[in-house]
């Protein structure tokens, strides 16, 4: 297998997340132009992301403490 570059990063950030990019662009640049509701949606997305990463970090810490003392 040849080392052709970061293909996985391109797939994840370019292809898999493109619906999210389009959704956010539609929220921010769509008509009628009202920013309150898109900011609430972005807050929910950011909050869910922080909670998911925090939960994964907490789970990793718990596994580390329980199984690898």
Task: Describe the protein's architecture and organization.
The chain is an all-alpha fold and 69 residues long. It is 78% helix and 0% strand. The chain is built from three helices and no strands. The radius of gyration is 18 Å and the shape is flat. The model has no long low-confidence stretch (mean pLDDT 88).
Layout: helices, strands, pairs:
Blueprint: H1 7-16, H2 18-29, H3 36-67
Descriptors for this entry?
69 residues; mainly alpha; 3 helices; 78% helix; 0% strand
Radius of gyration: 18 Å
Distance between the termini: 38 Å
Helix content: over 70%
How many strands in all? 0
Order of helices and strands: HHH
Shape: flat
Strand content: under 5%
Low-confidence region ranges: none
Largest sheet composition: none
Mean pLDDT: 88
Name the structural class. mainly alpha
Q: Please, how many helices?
A: 3
Q: What is this entry, summarized?
A:
The chain is mostly helical. 78% of the residues lie in helices and 0% in strands.
């Amino acid at each position: 297998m040849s080392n052709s570059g970061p293909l996985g990063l391109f797939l994840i950030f370019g292809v898999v997340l493109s619906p999210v990019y389009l959704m956010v662009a539609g929220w921010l640049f769509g008509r009628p132009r009202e920013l309150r509701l898109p900011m609430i949606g972005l807050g929910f997305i950011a909050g869910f992301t922080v909670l998911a990463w925090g939960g994964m970090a907490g789970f990793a810490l718990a596994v580390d403490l329980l199984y690898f003392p």
